[in-house]
User: Fold this.
Amino acid sequence: MQNKLMTLVAQTAKQGKDQALSALQPARYLKGLTKAQVGRNKTVLVTGASSGLGEGMAKLFAKLGYNLAICARRTDRLEQLKADLTELYPDIKIAYRVLDVTDYDTIFEVFNAFAKDFGQIDRVVVNAGIGESRRIGKGRFETNRRTAEINFISALAQCEAAMNIFRAQNNGHLVVISSMSAMRGLPKHMTTYGASKAALAHLAEGIRADMLLTKLPIKVSTIYPGYIRTEINTNAKPLPFEVDADTGTKAIVAAIESEMVEACVPSLPWSIVGHAMKHLPLNVVNKIS
Assistant:
């Protein structure tokens, strides 16, 4: 009993150290994991992998030695990504499938097909989503509805499909990509987007609560990215504390690898900003957004 307790304490201390390093020095943390090839013989499934954060995460996971199950709408981008990564990392297996996440039945078909391809899916990153929304009451309901459905209902379908696989395996790691905009209700074009990402974060927390209740060995992580400059928002005006895609994706993957329950990324300054957003008056939060 004493030996088990000491082992648990040591494991907890190491996990805490890893999480601190991943938050404060993600590039250094990932360098060590790359050297160890922590992903060898494991498979990660990434949705929305044809561009932006999804593409960046896929590249980093490949570098860590993971086999990749990648999906998105654009076949040409997936083909090119597979070709590029296969050339760089010939020892990993990469499979891609076309997936429009508004087709809910296809989500289950694609996830199950990947599970059959690889035999096991160790991690699913629910990343596919859109950032388009408009002010409420300005006649743009259809735009807002589409954003809400893709960022939440489609994500719900992805979580359902992933958890079906994980429950059958009795292990796995579900990761959802939320947003710092989920911390509070935000004005203007951020209102529906932020609400959809807040709903996704609560969904993930509910799944995590269920895993604790049922004592199933399935991990659940919620990632809250701050402003990360990708090709999707290339023409957007400069935003507070923004970072480039390379910095942002490294922070995200480091947080995922350390198996944080929740992580604002990059940790500095967003973990501090996130805490402030939850408590500051709404008119002050408006200035941040």
User: Anything to note?
Assistant: The longest strand covers residues 218-225. Confidence is low (pLDDT under 50) at residues 4-12. The chain is about 55% helix and 15% strand. Residues 38-288 form a domain with the Rossmann fold fold (CATH 3.40.50.720).
